[in-house]
Amino acid sequence: MSSFATSLRESNHDPTADGDGCHRSLTLRDRDELVPAASTFAPLCDRTLSSESRRPPTQDELSDTEHVTVETDPRENSPRNGVLAPHARLILALVIAATFLDVIDFSIVQVALPTIRKEFLAPLAEIQWIIGAYGLTMAGFLMVSGRAGDIYGQKRVFVIGIVLFTIASLTAGLAPSLLLLVLSRAIQGVGAAITTATALAILAATFPEGRARNRAFGILVAVLSAGFAAGSIAGGILTGAFGWRSVLFVNVPIGTAAAILTQRFIAPNGGRSTERSLDIPGAVSVTIGLILLVYAFTNAANDGLLTLQTAVPLALSAVVLAGFLAIEHQAKTPLMPLAFLRRGSVLTANVLGLILAASAGGVSFILTIYMQQILGYSALSAGLGFLPAALMFFFVGGWGSSWLVNRIGLKPVLLISTTCAALGSALLAPISVGTGYFGILPGFLLWSFGASIGFPALAIAGLAGTKPGEEGLASGLIQTSQRLGFPLGLALLLTVASALDPQVGVAGFRYAFLASALMSGLGLGIALLISGKKTPEIDVDMVATMAQIQTGESEE
User: Fold this and answer.
1) Element (H, E) at 68
2) Architecture label for domain 340-534
3) Contacts of 151 (CB under 8 A, 6+ apart)
4) What pLDDT does 276 receive?
5) How many CA atoms lie within 13 A of 270 on its CB side?
6) Tens-digit pLDDT profile for residues 495-549
7) Which among 484, 505, 482, 483 is positioned nearest to 494, based on CA atoms?
8) What is the pLDDT of residue 445?
9) What is the pLDDT of residue 269?
10) Which homologous superfamily is 87-275 in?
11) Distances in Å between the alpha carbon of 474 and those of 202, 306, 387?
C-alpha cells in the first residue's frame, strides 16, 4: 500500500479525473472506496497508475479537458492534511483572549459612561460617541483586515491588531479630554477589527476541517457571546473600585501578554493568497461604505428610519458600496472576488448571519429596556438578568453546537436554530407590564438556545468550501454581516414599535417581538438553501495518507 501512496503523490496521474477526462472533487464519502485497497481506485477512475497515465498530455487533450486545481498544503503535517497544528490549544486560548477583549470593550465601557460624563461635563450625545466610534471603525475595517491577513500573513496582521488595540487602550485611559478619548476608541476599534477578522482564519489554519475545527469555533463564539454579559459586571466592579480609567487600563497587560505569546507560539504564515498586493481602491471604498452604513443604522435606531439623519448616510453608503462592486468587477486583484460569494455556503451563511444578528440586536435591547424601565431593575440587575442567556451561549453554544454539527450537519442545526429563534420571539410577543422576569424567561431561553447554536454554526458555514488563502476574507465577511445585523435589527424593531405605539411602551414591544419572529422565519427559509452535505472535501494527499493509515504502513 505504501507503493500506492507513493505513486499517488509522485505520479502525474490525476485521481480527481473520471474516465472521460472530466474532473470532480474527492470527498470523505469516497474514503470507503479509496482507502481499503489500491485496486478499488482503478475502477473508480477507470484508469491505472500506468506509465501511459503518467505521460504529458497533448495540446488537444489539454484543450478538451476541464481542469480543476486540487490545492494542497506544502506542509505534510498541517491542518490542510487533517493534522492539528502544534500548540493548538494554546493558540485557541490566545485567540480567545485577544478577541474577548474586543467584545468586552463594548459593554465594559458602556457601564462607565455616566462617570465619564461627570468628569468631562459633556452632553449625552457627545458621550455616546465613546461607544459609537469604537463600533463604527470595528465594523468598517473587518473585511479589509481579513483580506490583509490572507495576503500578508494571519499571524503578522493579528499581532499588529493586538498591539494597536493595546496602545489605543493605554492612550484612552490617559486621555485628558473627551476628543482624545473618542479618537483613541476609534483606533481601538481598528485594532479590534484586525484581531477579530483574523481570529477565525488563524483557527482554520490551526485546526483541520471537521470536528476539531467545529469545536474550536464553537468555544470561541460561546466565550465571545458570554463576554457581553461579563463586560457589564466587570465594568461596574472596576469603575466602582478604581475609577473609569481602569476599564481601559485593564486591557494593557492582557494585550501585551497576548502579543508576546502569539509571537512565540503561533507559526509564521507568509500569506496563503496567490495575490501579493492589497486592492487599495476596493479597501478604501468598502471601509467608507460600511462605516456610513453602520452610522445610518445607528441613527435609525435613535432618530427613526425615515429621517434626514438616517437617509443621507444611507444613500451615501449605497453609492460608495455600489462603487466598491464596480471596482471589484474591474480589478485584476480584487479585495473580494465576486465569484467568492458563490463559494460553498458563503452567501447564504452571510445573509443568515445578518438576519440572526438583527434578531439578537433587537431582542436584547428591548428586553434590557423592559427590565430597567418597566420592571425597575438597575443596570447591574438587568445585566444579571441576562446571565441565563450568557450561560446558554457559553455551554450550549460552546459545546452543544459543534456536537450537533458533527453529528447531524450544518443545515439541520441552522434549521433548528432559526425555528427556536422564531418560536422564542413569538413567546415573548404577549409581554405586558405584569408579565415579570419569570414570565419572559421561557421565551427568552428558547430564543437564546436558537441563537447560541446558530452563531457557531454560521462561523463554520461561512468558511466551508473556501480555498486556501481565502480564510481571512471569509472570516471578515461573516463577522461584518453580523456587525451590520445588530444595528439593523435594532433600527427595524424600534421602527415597528414606534410606528404602532408612538410611546414605545409595552404595546410597541409586542409588535417588535412579532417582527423578530417574522425575521427569524425568513432566516428559516434561507437556511433551507444551505447544502445538506455533511462532509468537507479532501485533497489527494489526504487520500494517500488515509491509505497508509488503513494498512499501518508509512511512506519510505
Assistant:
1) none
2) Up-down Bundle (1.20)
3) 271, 273, 275, 276, 277, 278
4) 60
5) 4
6) 888 878 777 678 889 999 999 999 999 999 999 887 765 544 333 333 333 333 3
7) 505
8) 95
9) 61
10) MFS general substrate transporter like domains (1.20.1250.20)
11) 12, 33, 31
* Angle between helical axes of 211-242 and 88-120 (0-180°, round to 10): 30
130-139 burial, b at 16+ Cβ within 10 Å, e below that, comes to bbbbbbbbbb
Do 87-275 and 340-534 share a fold? yes
With beta carbons less than 8 A apart as the criterion, state whether 386 and 231 touch: no
Using CA atoms, how far apart are residues 357 and 466, in angstroms rounded to an integer? 23
**Could you tell me the pTM of the whole model?**
0.68
Q: Higher confidence at residue 441 or residue 206?
A: 441
Region 207-228: mean pLDDT is: 77
Please state, in angstroms and rounded to a whole number, the distance separating the CA atoms of residues 373 and 104.
24
Which residues, listed in sequence order, are joined to residue 537 by a DSSP beta bridge?
Answer: 27
Q: What is the mean pLDDT of the chain?
A: 76
Burial class for 376, CB neighbours closer than 10 Å (0-12, 13-18, 19+): exposed
Q: Provide the residue ranges of all domains of the chain, joining segments of one domain with +.
A: 2-70, 87-275, 279-334, 340-534
Give phi and psi for 122, each to the nearest 5: -105, 150
Q: Give the single-character DSSP code of 432.
A: -
User: How far is the C-alpha of 24 from the C-alpha of 261, rounded, in Å?
Assistant: 42
For the chain, the distance separating the N- and C-terminal CA atoms, rounded to the nearest angstrom, is 11
374-378 long-range contacts, CB within 8 A, separation 24+ = 374/433, 374/506, 375/436, 375/437
- What is the Cα–Cα distance from 70 to 504, expressed in whole angstroms? 57
Q: Which residues fall within 8 angstroms of residue 122, CB to CB, at 6 or more apart?
A: 116, 178
Residues 445, 447, 451, 453: is their CA dihedral positive or negative? positive
Alpha-carbon distance of 195 to 164, in angstroms, equals 10
Whether 487 and 301 have beta carbons less than 8 Å apart is answered as yes
Residues 6+ apart with CB under 8 A from 391: 226
Q: How many other CB atoms sit within 10 Å of the CB of residue 176? A: 8
